[in-house]
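Predict the holo structure. Ligand: flavin-adenine dinucleotide.
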Amino acid sequence: MKLSAYRITANKLRTTRIMDVKTENSNVKTFTFKDKECAKAMPGQFLMLWIPGVDEIPLSILDVEEDGIVSIVVKKVGEATEALHKMRVGETVGVRGPFGNSFTLNKGKVLLVGGGTGITPLLFLTKKYASKPAKLVFVIGAKTREELLFVDELEKLGEGNLIVTTEDGSYGIKCLATMPVEALLTKERFDMVYTCGPERMMLEVLNLAEKHGIVLEASLERLMKCAIGLCGSCVIGKYRVCIDGPVFTASQLEEVKAEFGVSKRDFNGAKIPI
Ligand SMILES: Cc1cc2nc3c(=O)[nH]c(=O)nc-3n(C[C@H](O)[C@H](O)[C@H](O)COP(=O)(O)OP(=O)(O)OC[C@H]3O[C@@H](n4cnc5c(N)ncnc54)[C@H](O)[C@@H]3O)c2cc1C
């Protein structure tokens, strides 16, 4: 299919009904619905979810199934996400997408570093790796035990392949997620690093990967409205995160280092610190 035709299909708003809602913790829920277009998504891609009467927001895709079932993980942070958290099975939402690029699959030894809901596209990626000859090590970090997501799911990676950190020490190692990353990269040779989460964490992971000469891909978040590269809300340097990303390589991040982990645009287009 030609790219233009693909975009027109993906960008058409479809309505669908919420099929399942799972509470992950007091601020995070997983929602499941049917959408044939988004079910074609690859790890790293996102969708725009319209919450009727409230807003339309970008969300990473957690998983897709062959029968068109799609799931997303949503943290309650403001008006739209709070309204979505109040919605129940059977209620209608709108969907556009999937949008953006996706992570590149590699061979060998792979390190994944996720913070908060940033773990979502990385978890999807681990499923794609299931059929690849690769060894996966996953580092997840959160402020507290309550905020840790999908630990049970990730434990399936096997003993020693999941490292959990919390800032308050309520679970796993008491430190930032970047601490074990530094130790791992110093001790072992990895072929690829993927990261998604708070931007300062990703900047630190980028610096560590570059220090050890390892290929990196990071998934970025910016304010997004159109999702098709027209409005410019998500601009970082010469890139528009919605169509040039959200996944960026280390060399692309080097080009935008004046803004990566430093600033982003607010709803008025003004640059604000991260
Ligand atoms: C590519 C991408 C993937 C994302 N994936 C997830 C995910 O898997 N799970 C998840 O919980 N959140 C995800 N987000 C963030 C999510 O879009 C925002 O939390 C949501 O838009 C907030 O809306 P609100 O009305 O509840 O909050 P608001 O009251 O509008 O704002 C609260 C905070 O969210 C930020 N925000 C608001 N609107 C947007 C927007 N349109 N784009 C980006 N940030 C915004 C604001 O800067 C502010 O810090 C993703 C964002 C992007 C760009």
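The chain has a mean pLDDT of 95. The chain has eight helices and 18 strands.
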